[in-house]
Prior knowledge:
This protein is of the alpha+beta class. The protein contains two helices and four strands. The strands form two sheets. Strands 1-2 form a two-stranded antiparallel sheet. Strands 3-4 form a two-stranded antiparallel sheet. Strand 1 (9-13) and strand 2 form a beta hairpin. The radius of gyration is 15 Å and the shape is elongated. The model has no long low-confidence stretch (mean pLDDT 85).
Amino acid sequence: xxxxxxxxxxxxxxxxxxxxxxxxxxxxxxxxxxxxxxxxxxxxxxxxxxxxxxxxxxxxxxxxxxxxxxxxxxxxxxxxxxx
Length: 83
């Protein structure tokens, strides 16, 4: 199965030559902080700050205290990964 370049997974082979998927390292090189406005979602923030709505999981990974990425409380401080 082919993966998109921005996927959180990569395909490698094990010692027997079988394809296996592994998660990419998700440690950001740094982050910026934004304050949410009413009705924002991680997908919208990823579109604005990362240029791709499918990268919402990068924001979710460094903001584990936000339990519902589609229901972010107003004025919540959110870390946005750099790099």
